[in-house]
Amino acid sequence: MSDNNAPKFKVIVGLGKTGLSCARYFHERGEAFRVIDNRFSPPCLPEFEVEFPFAEVELGEFSESTLMEAGEIVLSPGVSKATPEIAKAIAAGVSVTGDIDIFSRAAKAPIVAVTGSNGKSTVVTLVAEMARQSGLNIGVGGNLDGRASVPALDLLRLGNKDLYILELSSFQLETTTKLGAEVATILNISEDHLDRYESMSDYIEAKKRIFRSCHQAVINRDETPELYNSLTAQQVVCSFGSDEPGNNQLGVVLHERESWVAMGDHLIMPARDIRLPGRHNLSNAMAAFALGQAVGISESAMVTTLREFGGLPHRCQHVRNLRGVDYYNDSKGTNVGATLVAIQAVAERTRGELVLIAGGVGKGADFSPLLPLLDKYVKRVILIGKDAPLLASVIKDSTDIMRASSIEEAVLEAAESANDNDAVLLSPACASYDMFKDFAHRGRAFVAAVEALS
Prior knowledge:
Helix content is 33%, strand content 21%. The protein folds into three domains: 10-97, 3-Layer(aba) Sandwich (Rossmann fold), CATH 3.40.50; 101-308, UDP-N-acetylmuramoyl-L-alanine:D-glutamate ligase (3-Layer(aba) Sandwich); 317-451, Mur ligase, C-terminal domain (Protein-Tyrosine Phosphatase, Chain A). It has 16 helices and 20 strands. Strand 17, helix 13 (371-377) and strand 18 (378-383) form a beta-alpha-beta unit. Strands 7-8-6-9-10-11-12-13-14 form a nine-stranded mixed sheet, with helices on one face. It has 454 residues and is of the alpha/beta class. Its main location: cytoplasm. ATP binds at residues 116-122.
């Protein structure tokens, strides 16, 4: 029997980067904690054991007794609140939080918060570069990948900042009750993570938590109004969209027979001067500009950044041209919406047809929205991964289908299928964890296979 008078402790659920950052945070503040993980070898266990050799760790299952005894459960984003052991503890009255909620209470500088199904990392990186161009001392992190990947709580260990810029996933927002961002946005929405959410509506509701107690909000006029129906008129300081803008709106206007980005009647820059290619990146650029303006970044710094920033790896990244065929790495295309954008963007700069490499873990997505663009631009799809049969059953006769057992085999088949002026595009519309560590690993494997072609 547990002692109700015993001191309460935090229970950190999950020992990845987020869980490790929570442990560091509590340790520095002298708060008691335990860590539990249902894996026997979670990814950050070696680092944790070095930093906290005497801390309590329970591996292999989520102990109900430990969860029930917790003063508070600190849930890593990879673990759903619907997990049976977690749900039982919540029902028993144990409070649950996450690292973003904890961060928002501790942060002393304004927060720029960005979520959406696609484009988050690009927009966050653009805003960060704009802020640096203005001379601000910033902290950048959250759900970013690669070298820029810094868990939010670890940002607090890096000294005082003028501004925090966070990429936030729906998983992180599930446990975020009052973010209080200076400015927040949902860039866009498309089907994703339906293996975690019961419905698209549940996914959208998780995203909308980013606006809780925000001071300012930026909205996308091209998206469904449902994303923004929790906001007041006073919170919405700017919108962006592909149409002609009104007052306090960013949009595209025709000036001297050329498309310009404008804020109302104010011309900002020619659209062609934005270095990032594609219509989707024009939208990303306007979102970043609106967010930067909301926190006082100078227009000159923002325009300079938009002229100079060339993009992130694994997002419609041009790898090489070999014998008249262009190869593009869009491994970050982990959902149908992202792949639709990638196909359109690459098709617009390709004189021939496309060979698409797709497949992986579909996350319960509906692949049928791909069919019109496959029919219009793609002459062959090469399928890889766990849900290749599901994709094939949807594509049917829309285009030619081939199967490959590895990314290397897929690249070889694509090279044989492509002719002069064609393009080969890796944009899987699926997650990568059936065959790879993550999307970056998949992208690197694709690039290596393309570079090996002769």
